[in-house]
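A reminder from the course coordinator: this example appears on the midterm review sheet, so study it carefully.

Given structure:
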């Protein structure tokens, strides 16, 4: 079974690109250790905002690019980005609801790399995923969104769940 993302790794140049967008592979514990260090410095809420903002930027830019350059429909953008999430090792993304006119998007993630690396927590911790999904939804919905991780494996839930509303 091929992996559209990893099949584009150019070992000669050291670049991993897909549709002219550059990606990089990084261990989840590297990201999570950074997250925990930032939490210790500024607190969990501000860290969550910062991690979410980084993800938001990536999701928003990707959503816009796939729509404008490749003429993907809203549904194709969501399907592609959720598939990509699995291909880059973030977890298995399952779209529960996509209501573009109603500006509502719900996605669940099994085996979140972030939750697994974080370990046990009393709060949701998958801020990068929440940000990417929110940024993507904002691009599709054409405006601001709110996003929440309502379930998280780090809290003991069976999966992570992200609810985004415009």
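Designed residues:
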């Amino acid at each position: 079974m091929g992996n559209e993302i990893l099949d584009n790794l150019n070992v000669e140049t050291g670049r991993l690109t897909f549709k002219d967008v550059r990606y990089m592979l990084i261990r989840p514990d590297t990201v999570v250790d950074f997250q925990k260090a930032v939490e210790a410095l500024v607190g969990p809420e501000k860290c969550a905002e910062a991690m979410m903002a980084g993800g938001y930027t990536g999701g928003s830019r990707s959503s816009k690019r796939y729509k404008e350059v490749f003429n993907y429909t809203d549904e194709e953008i969501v399907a592609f980005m959720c598939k990509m999430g699995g291909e880059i090792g973030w977890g298995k993304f399952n779209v529960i609801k996509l209501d573009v006119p109603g500006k509502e998007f719900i996605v669940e993630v099994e085996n979140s790399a972030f939750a697994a690396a974080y370990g046990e927590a009393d709060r949701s911790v998958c801020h990068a995923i929440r940000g990417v999904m929110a940024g993507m939804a904002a691009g599709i919905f054409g405006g601001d969104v709110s996003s929440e991780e309502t379930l998280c494996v780090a809290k003991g839930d069976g999966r992570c769940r992200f609810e985004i509303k415009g």
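The CA atoms of residues 151 and 160 lie 5 Å apart. Residues 31-165 form a domain with the Muramoyl-pentapeptide Carboxypeptidase; domain 2 fold (CATH 3.30.1380.20).
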